[in-house]
Amino acid sequence: MLYTEELKNMVFKNFRIQTLIRTIVIFFILILIALWVVQDKYLRSVYLGIFAILLIVELFYYINRSNRDLNNFFQSVLHNDYSSHLRDSGKGKSFRELYDTLNEINERLSLLSSEKESHTQYLISMIEQVRVGMLSVDANDQVQLVNMACKDLLNLPGISAGTNIRKTNPELMSIIDQIRIGEHQLIKWKVKEEEKPFSFQVTGFKSGDQEMKLVSIHDIRAELDEKELEAWQKLIRVLTHEIMNSVTPVVSLSSSLNDLVHDHAGKIKDEFLEKKLKDGLEAITERSSGLMNFTEAFRNLTRLPAPKIANVRIDDLIKRIETLLKPQLQQFNTTFNIVYDGKPSGFKGDIDLLEQVVINLVKNAMEAVEGVKEPRIDLIICDHEESKVKIIIKDNGPGIDPEIQDKIFIPFFSTKENGTGIGLSLSRQIVLMHRGILEVKSLPKQGSEFEIIL
After folding, report:
1. Is residue 287 part of a domain?
2. Are 173 and 150 in contact (CB under 8 A)?
3. For 412-447, where are the E strands, in sequence order?
4. Same domain? 324 vs 443
């Protein structure tokens, strides 16, 4: 703006000089006309008078046109319109040079504007590509910037630049207000009837003289699941260590005593005591061995091998699952339907570990549809956003009680009478090792749907 004002001053200074020269010429012509009139040279005076009138008309035309051209030019610059181009139209060398300079400045400003627009578009494209939700709000609660990640994470497709967020979504604005600048909070936000945990962080900055808030939103489900499993793994390690330390000598001792009783059975006079001792020691041996086996099964949760990542063809995965499960499904008259249109053709992962997850989920679905009229299980494989793959195992069983849905992935938790509570926990752990997500959607009497996103 300062540069434009200085340019204006230069232009109008040059303009005043040109006007002054014309005015002086007209003044001298009028003096000459007066002298010729005094000398009775009327014919010359008339001709010179006509010439003076033409000069005066040209002066007014020059003033009006120059002012109009320059005003239009500067108005265009002030409004960021660089399409105008000045032409001197015979106004002389000074205006020709001036107009050439102004046109060159106009081209430079146009180039700078294009570069600025290109840089802005580049930054917007970068913001749109990040998986973190970004939302910028000014002091009047107007949205200045929002990326697609924010709309998708919070399920707010209607929010856009210029929206008054306090009016359209007071709940979100209330969250932003309660978080102090520079801090972050864990917030549960309802997305399609499901509460999901998000990390909200608010940063303050200035744009010109205006105070702004930049809100970043992170989906932390995977991190929370990973931390939860890590905590359970630590607990399991402690439990198995302590249990094994206690059970091992009991097994050894009870086994030795049992052998001793069998070897000296004839020397023990009290037959009742002998029988009782034998039965008790056998029970101790049997129970201790069972406890060791039980503990060893839990230990497997913390001894999963690292996944051997390779290219997995989905056709191969489907073929292996069909081979293993179809006979069993046919035996129980359960319809097993695979929905796959050939996309994606594959993904990266450990086929052995992921096959174990899918088989475990299908077997759970088989148990869920027992006793259901026309039992059905669907295996759906399809594309997911960001070139990922989604695997869905869906059944038409009785569904899962909402009160226990957040517990089914916890180790040792089971709704089955003889269940160990390891299967789903193990499955989620394998999926997390692939940097994926395993979650459940279920309603009573409407079946269950387990989603694996890799």
Report:
1. yes
2. no
3. 437-442
4. yes
Residues 94 and 185 in one domain: no
Q: Which amino acid is present at 3?
A: Y
pLDDT in tens, 383-431: 887 668 999 999 998 888 888 887 788 776 677 666 666 778 888 888 8
Same domain, 321 and 411: yes
Alpha helices, DSSP H only, in 169-270? Answer: 170-178, 221-263
DSSP of 71-95, one letter per residue? Answer: HHHHHHHHTT--------TT--HHH
The three-state secondary structure class of 315 is helix
| pLDDT at position 120 over 90 | no
pLDDT at 12 over 60: no
**Is the model's pLDDT at 261 over the cut of 80?**
no
Asked whether residue 206 falls in the same domain as residue 238, the answer is: no
The CATH number given to whatever domain includes residue 208 is: 3.30.450.20
pLDDT in tens, 286-312: 666 666 666 666 666 666 778 888 998
For residue 344, is the peptide bond before it cis, meaning its omega torsion is within 30 degrees of 0?
A: yes
Of 269, 286, 302, which residue is a domain's last? 302
* Claim to verify: residue 57 and residue 29 sit in the same structural domain: yes
Residue 24 has pLDDT above 80, yes or no: yes
Alpha-carbon distances, residue 387 vs 116, 131, 382, 384, 434 (angstroms): 32, 13, 10, 6, 15
The enclosing domain of 409 has a CATH number of 3.30.565.10
In one-letter notation, the amino acid at residue 63 is I
Q: Which domain holds residue 14?
A: 2-120
Task: Check: pTM over 0.70? Answer yes or no.
Answer: no
Contact 377, 329 (CB under 8 A): yes
* Beta strands, E only, 49-140: 133-138
CA atoms 401, 407, 413, 419: torsion sign: positive
Q: Are strands 310-313 and 335-339 parallel, antiparallel or unpaired?
A: unpaired
| Domain count of the fold of the chain | 4
- Collapsed DSSP state (helix, strand, coil) of residue 130: coil
Element (H, E) at 212: strand 210-219
Same domain, 107 and 158: no
End-of-domain residue from the set 120, 141, 170: 120
- The tens digit of pLDDT for each residue in 169-202 reads 888 888 888 888 878 788 888 887 777 888 888 8
Query: Quick one: tokens of 433?
Result: 């090792």
Residue 125, in any domain of the structure: no
User: What Å distances lie between residue 79 and 8, 74, 76, 117, CA to CA?
Assistant: 15, 9, 5, 15
**CA atoms in the 13 A half-sphere facing the CB of 260:** 8
392 burial via Cβ count (<10 Å: 0-12, 13-18, 19+) = middle
